[in-house]
Amino acid sequence: MAGDAIVIGAGISGLTAAYYLKKAGRNPLLLESADRAGGVIESLDAEGFLIERGPNSLRGTQELLDLTEDLSLTREFMAGDPHAPAYVYFGGELHAVPMSPTALVKTRLLSTSAKLRLLKEPFIRPRIATGEESLASFVRRRLGSEVLERIVAPFVSGVYAGDVEQLSVQAVFGQFAEFEAEAGSILRGAIRAARRAKQEAARKQEPPKRSLKPYRLCSFKNGLQSLPRTLAKALGGCFVSSARVTDVQAQPSIPKFRVTYELHGQRQSVAADRLIIATPADAAARLLQNVAPALASLLTDLPYTSIASVPLAYRVEQLGRPLDGFGFLAPRSAGLRTLGSIWSSSLFPNRAPAGWAYCTNFIGGETDRAAAQLSDEELIRIVHGDLQKVLGVTGEPRRLPITRWPRAIPQYVIGHAERTKQIETALAQVKGLRLIGNYLHGVAIGDCLRNAKMAAATLVQT
User: Fold this and answer.
1) Which of 119, 133, 292, 457 has its CA 20 to 30 A from that of 436?
2) Looking at the domain assignment, is residue 275 inside a domain?
3) Non-local CB neighbours of 457 within 8 Å, separated by 6+ positions
4) Is residue 199 part of a domain?
5) What is the pLDDT of residues 10-59, one digit of tens each?
6) d(CA 433, CA 427)
7) How far apart are CA 15 and CA 227, in angstroms?
8) DSSP-derived 3-state class of residue 360
């Protein structure tokens, strides 16, 4: 297979990269150690409940919509209600997250003093110090402590399961940090950026992009696994599962890379000029030991956090209130151990049998590292107790399969932005090699799709 491309890892990043390489006329080989495609994306039918063991929904992006159309998945594609509220549990009650200036004025999630504090943001002096800053420090300076505690920290828990005191604003909300650096204010920076984007589009005479407003929450009729499953099917013989890569070598001659793997007890070897590694960071580090040891060392200790996904079902009459939105998140000061709850059966149809509702609840993360190691019984007891407080549920829950992810989400801690620059510098020294996944430039599936597509495009051009 000399001269083509090898992709290692068939999570959503590797699948997408291989798909676009094949679409461009290449003949990629995608190797996956597991017996299925999809990585953390896994949909499970559990006695009539459609359970997502990893991510529960997608945010619509241009790349997602393009890929859905390419794969003829449009009929399977579903967009939830874009106006479905997300809640924060605080002060013993649920508050809809304010999504408009009017809602911000009316909300009881923030005090009057906190709302007035927001008005001062354009007049607060920008930070002079260089280097990365924690997200907590940045938000406190510019928006105030209440916004940090009651809005930003819960949101970050929902995305990263991280600690706002440790996460880097330059890595997590880099655009906000740039707005302050360039314009002295988040608000002024956002206005300038919007104006520049409009002017640039007019200069290039680009047609307007489709609106993403209707696609805030997306999935597929049979769950998110429909996307990786369809990608794998489109790749046909280019995708090989149960193939454990044992060695990667860089060769002085062409083809440049030689990959050795085991398949059904047999040792096989392939070579190619282009190599994409789409595994978690620690696995990528092991694979690169003989190819780029300096690059491997930068990936070795990149931190991840652990999470347990605890879905619980209730008869509708057990609920003390309707599940009329996306779900809720909880500040660490709210007295709950559950990080957040997604009201899965309310987001999309056919997620639960008639008369039932179920929530997918997450516990653990950087502020509660021991939680994911608890027994099933203890996890259910804790989460059910939290749902009694928040939703007023009565009786006992119906147990559904619990999933533990010991390395669930990479943590973009202080130093991550600088580390990423070093990784990119080291990567540029190895022609034909690309790294993709959720540990460098965004943890969301949409980020992975975008970065995988870009990686495939750059390799096609070389």
Assistant:
1) 133
2) yes
3) 20, 24
4) no
5) 999 999 999 999 999 999 999 999 999 999 999 999 999 999 999 999 99
6) 7
7) 10
8) strand
What's the pLDDT at 206? 67
Judge if 91 and 219 occupy the same domain: yes
Q: Are 227 and 12 within 8 A, CB to CB? A: yes
Amino acid at 445: I
187 belongs to a structural domain: no
Task: Count CB atoms within 10 A of the CB of residue 276.
Answer: 26
Query: Whole-prediction pTM value?
Result: 0.94
CA distance 232 to 222: 16
Percent of the chain at pLDDT exceeding 90: 89
Domain end (from 410, 428, 452): 410
Q: Look up the CATH number of the domain holding residue 241.
A: 3.50.50.60
Q: What digits encode the pLDDT tens for the residues 425-434?
A: 999 999 999 9
* Judgement on whether residues 385 and 322 belong to the same structural domain of the protein: yes
Per-residue tokens: 12: 């959503």
pLDDT at 1: 40
Alpha-carbon gap, residue 124 to 179, rounded angstroms = 13
**Do 309 and 397 have their domain in common?**
yes
Banded model confidence at residue 2, pLDDT cuts 50, 70, 90: very low
Other beta carbons less than 10 A from residue 122's beta carbon: 15
Tokens representing 325?
């939105």
Tokens coding 294: 């300096």
The answer as to whether 90 is a domain residue is yes
Q: Which domain holds residue 423?
A: 5-41+227-301+414-461
Give the three-state DSSP class for 91.
Answer: coil
Span 292-323, pLDDT tens digits: 999 999 999 899 999 999 999 999 999 999 99
Number of domains in the chain: 2
- β pairing state of 239-240 and 29-31: parallel
Distances (CA, A) of 342 to 318, 328, 329: 17, 7, 9
Sheet hosting strand 266-272, strand order edge to edge: 243-250, 257-263, 266-272
Please say if the pLDDT value at position 462 is more than 80: no
Q: What is residue 149's DSSP assignment?
A: I
Residues 315 and 294 in one domain: no
Answer for the pair 159, 444: CB distance below 8 angstroms, yes or no. Answer: yes
The CATH number of the domain where 320 resides is what? 3.90.660.20
336 and 377 co-located in one domain? yes
